[in-house]
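Subgroup meeting minutes
Present: P.N., E.W., G.H.
Scribe: E.W.

1. P.N. recapped why we're keeping a running log of single-chain structure predictions: easier to compare across weeks, and new members can see raw inputs and outputs side by side.
2. G.H. added today's entry (225 aa).
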Amino acid sequence: MSKVVTTPHLDVEQGLFVEGYELVGSLDEVGRGSAFGPCCVGLCVVDATVGTVPTGLRDSKLLSSRTRDGLVAPIDSWALDHAVGEASAGEIDEFGLTAALRLAGYRALSQLRVAPDILILDGSYDWMSMPAQEPLTPVPYPDVRVAPVRTRVKADLTCASVAAASVLAKVYRDHLVMELAEHVPGYDLENNKGYVTASHLAALRELGPSRLHRLSWNLPTRAVS
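Output recorded in log:
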């Protein structure tokens, strides 16, 4: 039995336009589960004039790296505006993962030329809106306006603008990890992109974590002989 592949569409975005929203911003994160490097948040903005969804657009996890790279230019032409924000491994260690994701999202918002008046966030938890209680350590959030957030489970599979945000974030982070890998060789980062694989675990046990790993995570340390 063949696997059914869902094609992202604009039904959700069009519904928000009908509600009266003019600029829909969609977000997706990449790197949440990685043990190395930054978490990144892609942000794609569309309005009611948005055209046909770029051919081949899917959730980034369903695409090859070559296909993802090839979608960046069509997304750039299709979207009204887009950006990717990041928070470093050090910031994840200092502020916690949720606050770091929010920081990356705010940094993406700060790069836009236009400000969305509604946000679609992939998943069931709203990590973009400011919590009632701030972390003990002040987080250097950019001074940006954050629109109301609508969470949507599996939005990267069904909402075209969220799928586009996921592709942009994945391409950006993969290329960034490849650059960082040149400074900390030996962890097979070129292949695992910082996620925990057998080869990555073996390298951590042999070398210990690098300065670009998430040191607050429960990572294997260098074995003492």
